[in-house]
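Review form for a predicted model. The reviewer records the input and the model, then writes brief findings.
Reviewer: anonymous (R2)
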Amino acid sequence: MGSVMGALYAIGYSGNEIEQIVRKLDWNELLTNQVTLRALAMEEKEEYGRYAVELPFKNRHFQVPTGALESQELWLQLSELLFPAYRTRSFSDFDIPFRCIATDLETAAAVVMDSGEITTAIRASIAIPGVFTPVDYKGMRLVDGGIVRNLPVSEVREMGADYVIASNVSHGLKPHNQLNNAIQVLMQIAFFKDGEDNKRQIELSNCYINQSLEGYSSGSFDKSDEILESGIKTGYQYYPVFKHLADSLSAIYGSLYVRPAAPVRTDSVLLVSCQVEGLSSVSLSSFRQFIHFQGGKYYSAQQLSDMVRLAYGTRNFRYIRYRLEPADIVGYRIIFETEENPAINCKLGMHYNTFSGVSLIANATARNYFLPASRSLITLNIGENMRARAEHLQYLGKKNSLMLIPGIQYESFRVTTYKQFRKDGQFRSDYFRWDLKLQSAGSLRQSFGAGTRLETVGYSPLIASDTDIRGTGSGVTPYLFYQLNTLDNPVYPGTGTRFDAELGYVIPRDFDYTLWEGDTNVSYSTFSGLSQRNYYRFVLNYEYFEPINPRNTFSALVQAGVNSDTDQNLYSAFSIGGLNRLYRNQIVFSGLENNTVFSHSVVSAQARVHRRLGSNLYLIPGASVLLYDFVGSPTREVRRKFLSGYSLTMAYNSILGPIELSAMYSDQSKSLYTYVTLGLSF
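Model under review:
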């Protein structure tokens, strides 16, 4: 990261400013191929971050990345910080002349970068092999310059420096007593050349500072504050040396050189035109709609980053970068450099849940493959409970402001039934849904629309209970919906809100059930007052996350589900129980197992505190209250019922997804339950 610090200082940032920048950076956000959930279009948020492995499929084979991190957010952060230098193409023209070093992957030669687009040069200089992807720069593919020249004293001498202070933070070659396995020996051999070159570079310096950073590595970004404090401590130790040098120079040349105050930094640029490189399946007009570009306006660095995030949030691109070039008469033109994601992306994830069992989740997503301006996906849940879903999203209109989304879904679950909070029996539920909806598109925060779905549900007993149901039923539901999502992360958000509401009108049809009360077969029309009347249906889900302090986050969850006619069967009833949302009509509740209670009218509230114990380790206590059966019917009296429950979860956010071990208790069941989850569900 030496080139980053050097570039900032060279273009006019002070040491204090650089220190504050480093302390404020969110390294977890910068050093990832993920983007914040808020940067995604609403139509992409549901699928984002759900899989442990994502592999592009191109030219009939899977592509393995050349580095772990493309890090779109790091590019944008560097672009914002280095924005004051956008007019300058020669690095010698900075406030302090500047150079940075990279390594040519083809020739293994050190490449001294002294001109061009500064952000690209810096990103190439820090492209640690295996960590960051290589960078194409002036016809070369470059990686971290530290591979061949970790201490570039000779290059500084060539720039004309008379006195060189060299600071080295690398560990160098290890002593023989620390070489304890084959990997350490191979790494030692790989750095033989670097070790010899460092010796020569040290000899060329006038003042050499060896910064002791034992216990840290090139990947210790999460310990940046500790490393910074170590550097400040070393700086104070060398202060007498610097003071003596300053006094000597003052005695020879007179008054000390004082760096002039940095000029007022440019905070915006006039953009008159837009050019895009690298497009193939995405049209230029679509890209311009993604970024909402308007020529003849001034844009700040933050606004330019937000433009890029809008396009990147469509998931069509592997990366998006930009450079600014002078226009013919006045202002600048912005040139976006893009690389589209392959048309097909394959994803894999694992999931285990106490209720649903273990499963492998496989997904294939195609973008602009079958039709332009489209996304098609198919997802399979292969395990103890089979599930499948297919969906096609087609953008409509000149501005891609609408989406037409047809989809189908099938799932088969083993469902345990309860009587007075005790297990009573088990049945299999087979569910099929066909759905067609028209939805607004392009917003990062909200969407709304209307649709209709045809649902078919089949039941077959597996373990007999007092009341069993066998057969199938179906219904058609036209509906309106509204969605809002400002969460910052799909898993354990730190801040934001999610709101989903749907109002539907259910038209039951084609019911063919056989119902049993003990050994007695009861016809559908006379069973417990069930009806086939049409009815309204309202569903609401509201989640809220607010940080209390850096280690604690408060979350609230409010859910509601109401059928205006309660003389219905399990086809439309809401299922109460479980800590994680797994299937349709579920109302999660801290304290009860999945499907412990069924009801046609439910409202619940849950409060939790997410206590961060480590970078990915959480302790989450929670409590829930719930009111149900508060809506009656011509044949049923209102008999309001109340539930209260509690949970305590130990959670770890792993590469496979969240791992959660929970204990739950309900005041009504007076039973303690355990609940285990691994990964994200279907």
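Findings: The chain has 13 helices and 32 strands.
Further findings: The first strand starts at residue 53 and ends at 58.
Recommendation: see findings above.
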